[in-house]
């Protein structure tokens, strides 16, 4: 059972160092007499410190007039607790006639501290409030190359400018995990001010030499990168490549080799190369790289095969065997012509997409409206500024957000997506910020939120306009402070997240109505990317159809399909309220219903077929034969529609028709061509 005694500290300086030394001395005597361990704690505190050591007592920072509690859980400790409490409760006038013993304790603690400082492997620098160095341990000497006798008593920034020691004293903030270079060495530092009674009385810098770790990390990274590049090269070349060891057993085959000779890669490993081609003679000159072998397959194809020795440290380790189809050489002329055409095409595409990061290459389309939007997104990827992606549902907002992440400096960090409309408002906070164990019923363990998971990378907040105002306020604080608090938590968690938001909601109108916060809008709307709807980029429909047919064919193992011209025309003249997502669904349905290698208009929904009939009727009225001439409005609509199809943007269509882009935009609205 615990024995306790409460007293009020009456010394004007509280439990300062000398008083703490007196208490430690008395505690050691009482503990020895009554065979117990004595502790001191503040009132209402669960944890105490041992009374027989100076540093823990000083660290309590007990002030004059403050009530403390002496306690012990050992049996027979009542008298010891009472005696020490009585000693602590003495008035300042009482003299303690053990000055020599007290000084001895202080000296022992000082020497012990110095011994600890010198024995640790990390560099340690301590300074006073004026930036004067008073501690510079042995490890600091070894890492910096500066002798303690040369720097102690002098300004630290004059000797170690990279550490910015004066900034530490002025900022009053800790700086942890910083990396600096001192000479040829890399160090990681933790800098902390020493604050007493809200005043900075000095600072401490602890640093560790990580040069060796940096070198090992770089070497490991280089080896991994080299291996990955090597594997990619082997798998992408047209030649069949096979590697064998000194016993002529196969250790590796690439995909072209398997395809050429119709051999299963996993079945040929560890087998001798002679077993794969039993009719061929592989002599020593072949493995020495001095002769080649021409072999034929059962389907009449011919291949030339040669081997190159692998020498490591002047020792033979095996061979690289390369096989090439002879019939391929006859096709080179045709391929050169085809490649020249492709080169010309790529040059034209490159001119259109100049300035776009390669991370945007997987976004299908070459219309002017789309390229303009992607150019803005590509520029946004160069910084960590918040991005707001606007556009109708199905225009590919998340696809663009992922491309911005891949193109930025955080590409190797997490990308975490969150649909704000898909989560009930009462659960959204826990999804975004996480919760602590026991925060509410069912919280059996702690959970990290999306922001915490995305720290260092990017978080994508889709449908931000559907977030309720209470969550908007909490999100705004997170964006401003760059820190979160889990539900049920009391300690803020620092985060480093790049925010990309997306919405198809009219945020400006919502701000007028009061359903969306203006301050959050301006915080998110640093860079705006406006994605055009599909009806404004109909020239991209053939490219998208080709992409989706190939994608769906692979997904469901269906034969590749092409699309009939009348079906494609019906798609091009449809207004697509569901945008690219609706187009993909139409192609998927058409391929599923098609009974052959073509998607016809009969395989598309009936409303597209009816629209195609209306189009034929409208085009028929444009005939100049007889009296069935089009009206001026019909002809104007047709001209603007054709110009937009051909040029893809209001500006270029206006230039072609001799009109400005505002006029084209108004006419397109009038005739519902957007």
From TrEMBL:
Pfam families (UniProt xref): AAA_lid_14 (PF25601), HTH_50 (PF18024), PAS (PF00989), PAS_8 (PF13188), PTS-HPr (PF00381), Sigma54_activat (PF00158)
Residue ranges occupied by any Sigma-54 factor interaction domain in the UniProt entry: 363-592
Amino-acid biosynthesis among keywords: no
Coiled-coil region(s): 322-349
InterPro entries: AAA+_ATPase, AAA_lid_NorR, Homeodomain-like_sf, HPr-like, HPr-like_sf, HTH_TyrR, P-loop_NTPase, PAS
HPr domain sequence ranges: 2-99
Alphabetical UniProt keywords: Aromatic hydrocarbons catabolism, ATP-binding, Coiled coil, DNA-binding, Nucleotide-binding, Transcription, Transcription regulation
UniProt-listed SUPFAM superfamilies: Homeodomain-like, HPr-like, P-loop containing nucleoside triphosphate hydrolases, PYP-like sensor domain (PAS domain)
Protein name: HTH-type transcriptional regulatory protein TyrR
Organism: Acetobacterium wieringae
């Amino acid at each position: 059972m615990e024995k306790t005694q409460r007293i009020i500290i009456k010394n004007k300086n509280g439990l300062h160092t000398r008083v703490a030394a007196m208490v430690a001395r008395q505690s050691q005597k009482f503990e020895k007499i009554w065979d117990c361990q004595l502790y001191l704690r503040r009132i209402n505190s669960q944890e105490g410190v041992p009374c027989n050591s100076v540093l823990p007592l000083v660290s309590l920072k007990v002030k004059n007039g403050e009530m403390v509690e002496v306690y012990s859980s050992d049996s027979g400790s009542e008298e010891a607790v009472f005696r020490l409490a009585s000693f602590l409760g003495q008035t300042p006038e009482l003299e303690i006639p053990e000055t020599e013993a007290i000084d001895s304790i202080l000296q022992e603690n000082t020497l012990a501290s110095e011994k600890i400082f010198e024995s640790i492997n990390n560099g340690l620098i301590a300074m006073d409030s004026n930036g004067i160095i008073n501690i510079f341990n042995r490890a600091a000497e070894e890492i910096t190359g500066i002798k303690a006798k040369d720097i102690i008593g002098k300004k630290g920034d004059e000797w170690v400018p990279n550490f910015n020691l004066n900034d530490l004293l002025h900022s009053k903030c800790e700086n942890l995990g910083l990396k600096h270079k001192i000479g040829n060495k890399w160090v990681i530092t933790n800098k902390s001010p020493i604050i007493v009674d809200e005043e900075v009385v000095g600072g401490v810098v602890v640093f560790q030499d990580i040069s060796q770790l940096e070198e090992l990390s770089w070497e490991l990274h280089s080896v991994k990168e080299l291996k990955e590049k090597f594997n990619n090269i082997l798998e992408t070349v047209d030649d069949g490549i096979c590697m064998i060891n000194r016993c002529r057993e196969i250790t590796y085959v690439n995909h072209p080799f398997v395809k050429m000779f119709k051999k299963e890669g996993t079945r040929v490993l560890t087998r001798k190369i002679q077993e794969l081609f039993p009719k061929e003679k592989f002599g020593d000159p072949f493995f020495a790289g001095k002769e080649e072998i021409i072999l034929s397959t059962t389907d009449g194809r011919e291949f030339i095969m040669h081997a190159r020795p692998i020498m490591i440290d002047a020792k033979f380790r095996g061979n690289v065997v390369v096989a090439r189809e002879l019939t391929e050489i006859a096709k080179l002329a045709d391929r050169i012509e085809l490649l020249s055409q492709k080169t010309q095409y790529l040059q034209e595409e490159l001119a259109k997409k100049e300035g776009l990061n390669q991370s945007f290459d997987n976004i299908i389309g070459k219309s002017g409206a789309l390229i303009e939007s992607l150019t803005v997104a590509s520029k946004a990827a160069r910084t960590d500024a918040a991005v707001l992606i606007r556009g109708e549902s199905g225009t590919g907002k998340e696809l663009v957000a992922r491309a911005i992440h891949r193109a930025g400096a955080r590409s190797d960090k997490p990308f975490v997506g969150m649909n704000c409309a898909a989560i009930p408002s009462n659960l959204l906070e826990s999804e975004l910020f996480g919760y602590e164990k026991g925060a509410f019923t069912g919280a059996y363990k702690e959970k990290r939120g999306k922001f915490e998971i995305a720290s260092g990378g990017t978080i994508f907040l889709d449908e931000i306009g559907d977030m309720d105002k209470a969550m908007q306020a909490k999100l705004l604080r997170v964006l401003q402070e760059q820190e979160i608090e889990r539900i049920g938590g009391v300690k803020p968690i620092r985060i480093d997240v790049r925010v990309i938001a997306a919405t198809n909601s009219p945020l400006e109108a919502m701000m007028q109505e009061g359903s969306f916060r203006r301050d959050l809008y301006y915080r998110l709307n640093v860079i705006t990317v406006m994605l055009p709807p599909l009806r404004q980029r109909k020239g991209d429909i053939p490219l998208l159809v080709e992409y989706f047919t190939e994608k769906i064919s692979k997904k469901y193992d269906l034969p590749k399909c092409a699309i009939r011209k009348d079906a494609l025309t019906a798609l091009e003249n449809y207004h697509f309220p569901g945008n690219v997502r609706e187009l993909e669904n139409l192609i998927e349905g058409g391929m599923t219903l098609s009974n052959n290698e073509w998607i016809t208009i009969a395989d598309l929904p009936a409303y597209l077929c009816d629209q195609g009939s209306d189009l034929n009727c409208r085009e028929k009225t444009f005939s100049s034969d007889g009296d069935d001439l089009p009206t001026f409005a019909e002809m104007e609509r047709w001209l603007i529609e054709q110009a937009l199809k051909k040029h893809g943007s209001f500006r270029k269509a206006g230039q072609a028709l001799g009109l400005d882009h505002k006029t084209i935009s108004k006419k397109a609205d009038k005739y519902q061509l957007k």
